[in-house]
Structures are given as C-alpha cells and as structure tokens.
Amino acid sequence: MKKIRIEQGDITKLDVDCIVNAANRSLLGGGGVDGAIHRAAGPELLAECRTLHGCETGQAKITRGYRLKARYVIHTVGPVFSGAAQDAAALASCYRNSLDLARAHDIHSIAFPAISTGVYGYPLEEAVPIALQTVSSWLDEHPDYALTVVMSCFNQRACDLYTEFLEDRPS
Ligand code: APR
User: Fold this and answer.
1) For the chain, which has fewer Cβ within 10 Å, the N-terminal or C-terminal residue?
2) Facing residues of 19 across strands?
3) Does the beta carbon of 17 sit less than 6 angstroms from any atom of ligand 1?
4) Tens digit of pLDDT for each residue in 94-130?
5) In this structure, what CATH number is given to the domain that contains residue 71?
6) Domain tally for the chain?
7) Which of 33, 77, 87 to mutate to test the pocket of ligand 1 (most atoms within 8 A of CB)?
8) Whose CA is closest to atom 26 on ligand 1?
9) What are the helix and strand counts (H, E) for the chain?
10) Can you say whether the dihedral through the CA atoms of 123, 20, 13, 119 is positive or negative?
C-alpha cells in the first residue's frame, strides 16, 4: 500500500488526522500556508499557539485543529534558505520531528506542505528530495507504525517534482 501520496490543492481541505503548518518561530501566524491554516482553523488555533511560547527552527509542536477537518495541526519551523549546509539538516529535522510527534499522538495520516519553499526561499528542486528522503527513511525505520503521508502541493511544479522524485524511489 502506497505510504506516501501526492495531492495538489489546499492542505486545509484535506481529510487527514493531522496537517503540518510551515510556521515561523513565533507560532503566531503569518502568510502563506500558515495564514491559510489559521484562517481555516479559526481563532482558537492562535489562542492555543500563544500558550506554546514559540518554536525553534527544525522543531515541531502540536495543537488541536479546531474548525479544520484535521484533528491536529503540527507546527514546524523550516530554515530560511541561506545556501549553508545546515539548511538541509534543519529542513530534514522538520519532517522527522513532525513524524515523531505524530506517532506520539497516535496519528495515522498526516499532510505536509513543501516546508520553507515559499517565503523562506528554499528552492523546490532541493527541498523536495530532502522531504521525500526524510519521510521515506522514517517510514522504513518504523515499519510497524501505520502512517499515510500526503505531500500537499500548492502548484503543478511542486506536484511534478514530488512525482518525479517519488518515482525514482521505490516506496
Ligand atoms: N496548501 C498547501 N500548500 C500551500 C498553501 C496551502 N493552502 N499555501 C501555500 N502553500 C505552499 C507554498 O506554495 C509553498 O510551496 O506551502 C509552501 C510553503 O510556503 P510558505 O507558506 O511561504 O512557508 P515557508 O516558505 O515555510 O515560510 C514560512 O511564511 O507564512 C509565513 O508565517 C510563515 O513566517 C513564516 C514563513
């Protein structure tokens, strides 16, 4: 059974246990997918985020999903692309820490946006393989944990890149 799926469209519409938010370190909302998730979840999401006192780059924190279909939102903070080697490690940590947190909360379906590839400037062609390698490795390391991962793409180019890299990797 395919454990990694690619879906084009608005992540806030997905009927999964959890959607991942590409947040900033304040966790107090923003533009892009962060803005879309807060708009769809409603004001209670921000109220809960205020209790979390921010999040470091590469880390992940969880809240309820409120008016979203998803029961949970995992907020993770991607690296602002600088071209330094540690960008890739920080981006991989976002995916790994989010998956660890999902497992800890008995989440069995999770959707990721393409973290850091918008405002934070991470080139899609570099971020997509990091995302897929990290998710694939995590799934290989947890064969007994049933989890479906949806890579949510907001545009055709992201979809094409995910599809291209996924086809190169037996999953
Ligand atoms: N559904 C799915 N994907 C989306 C959506 C959506 N509704 N809206 C945007 N995206 C995609 C973008 O096309 C991009 O590929 O999410 C990816 C991440 O882009 P951003 O949302 O800009 O996030 P990021 O690059 O990680 O920058 C984070 O932006 O919104 C602020 O508060 C946020 O300061 C933080 C920064």
Assistant:
1) N
2) 73, 111
3) no
4) 999 999 999 999 999 999 999 999 999 999 999 999 9
5) 3.40.220.10
6) 1
7) 33
8) 116
9) 5, 6
10) negative
